TrEMBL record:
Xref: Gene3D superfamilies: 3.40.50.2300
Entries under SMART domains matching the protein: HTH_LUXR (SM00421), REC (SM00448)
Coiled coil: none
PANTHER family, A to Z: TRANSCRIPTIONAL REGULATORY PROTEIN NARL-RELATED, TWO-COMPONENT RESPONSE REGULATOR
Record PTM 4-aspartylphosphate, positions in chain: 55
Protein name (record): LuxR family transcriptional regulator
Source organism of this protein record: Streptomyces mutabilis
Amino acid sequence: MTTRILIVDDQDEIRAGIKAMLRLDPDLVVVGDLSDGLQVVPFLRDHPLDLVLMDIRMPGIDGVEATRRIRKEHPPEMLRVIVLTTFDQDDIVLAALRAGANGFLSKTVSPAELVAGITEVVGGGGALSAAATAALIGHMTDSPPPVIDRELLRRFDALTPRERDVVVLVASGLGNDEIAARMSVSPFTVKTHAVRAMTKVGARDRAQLVSFTFRAGLYP
């Protein structure tokens, strides 16, 4: 299926570079590119889309505010947003995720990683770069919840021992390949366990799964 994409970045060369990377996959179609966050919502009203690739630092309004405005008219299940940035501070990661972003990738990702991240997010999952995951985990460990969320903890009781092991490793910042090597299973098996765990605990993506894990007191 074709994925219709909007690129939002204030630098012409960045937008051109992203377009070049997306040409690797004929199913990814760039419908438009904008240089200002203020233009995003009006553009979406006239152009049906599946995904927005959003920069953070832009004139007018930043990517976090633009994402927040998108979510007032377009729910996450109807329109996906991936934040692309060179900044991986935990406050930016958290702000983007809380505004309604489905993923957070660094602009330094390879073309294959970008395409894989888009495929993951459009398929209903979430995508976090290693640096963004580390920032999120850093924030969680620096600011642990004052009390354990018992309701969340009860949700984790539904996980199998294998699923629970995968969840804890995800929360430690490891990717599927790293978890697979540690557990002596395939990356596909790891992904399957993670997806099942997300379904059981009600997490919409890996970022929320990490958050739930820490709030339930299941520290790596």
